Amino acid sequence: MSFHRFHETWLDHLHYLVDELAAAPKPSTSGDNLYLLKLINRVMTHYDEYYRVKSLAAKNDVLSLFSAPWLNFLERSLHWIVGWRPTTLFHLVYTESSILFESHVIDILRGVRTGDLGDLSPSQLGRVSELQCETVREENAINDELSKWQEGVSEIVGRTCVDLDEKIQRMVSIVEKAEDLRLRTFKELVQLLTPQQATEFLVAAAELQFGVHWWGLNQDRQRRRL
After folding, report:
1. How far apart are CA 96 and CA 204, in angstroms?
2. Among 96, 118, 150, 190, who pairs with 101 as Cys (CB 3.0-4.6 Å)?
3. DSSP for residue 27
């Protein structure tokens, strides 16, 4: 199966998994938490599979991941090294947390705990901040490595196939580091959240991905009509 076809199939199944998550009741018992954890693990396993197959695609033809014909123009315009920027996840957490906090601020001020993303504890917020700083540092290091690779583009002209293969392998290494940071950041954020919070976070992340995908498709259709 081509990566193009795999991506379409994977995205369809993500829809199904996220619908299950969104329909799950808010946990009121330990049994509810176990059910949510089961759903969360299924979603995270699905993401694991995506990055496993994408890693194989990078080794086979890394440049095709940059052109990404399976994505629309909007999706590609938002990419950072063949995928979303890892720090995007922190903006999503803060945005969702603020929206939920404002929606029941009166209850929170009365001491009522909602248990959702709007009710992050001080220790959770501290860990999110620390993880964000760590992720920014790693992003910058990968950016530096990519800049050095791009600065050496003049070396390609007149070089042998062996030289070109070495340069492509360096790009594969850069892509693998970016992919590892993406998945690792995603997992670490999910791990520091409660099952209810992780559910809300995963649903929000998927809805953002679906929204960008469908809005981009509509823009591509309108462009073709011109």
Report:
1. 8
2. 118
3. P
Task: Please report the sign of the dihedral spanned by the C-alpha atoms of residue 103, residue 108, residue 114, residue 119.
Answer: positive
Q: Is the separation of the CB atoms in 84 and 92 below 8 Å? A: no
Confidence of residue 118 (pLDDT cuts 50, 70, 90): confident
Is there a contact between 213 and 11 (Cβ–Cβ < 8 Å)? yes
Least confident of 37-51, 161-175, 183-197, 203-217: 161-175
Written as one string, the DSSP assignment of 171-218 is HHHHHHHHHHHHHHHHHHHHHTS-HHHHHHHHHHHHHHHHHHHHHHHH
pLDDT at 175: 97
The two three-digit tokens of residue 42, written as one number:
């299924």
Q: Contact 65/54 with Cβ under 8 angstroms?
A: yes
- Dihedral sign of CA atoms 75, 77, 82, 84 in order: negative
How is 34-81 classified by DSSP, letter by letter? HHHHHHHHHHHHHHHHHHHHHHHHHHHHHHHHHH-TTS-HHHHHT-SS
197: its two tokens: 């919070």
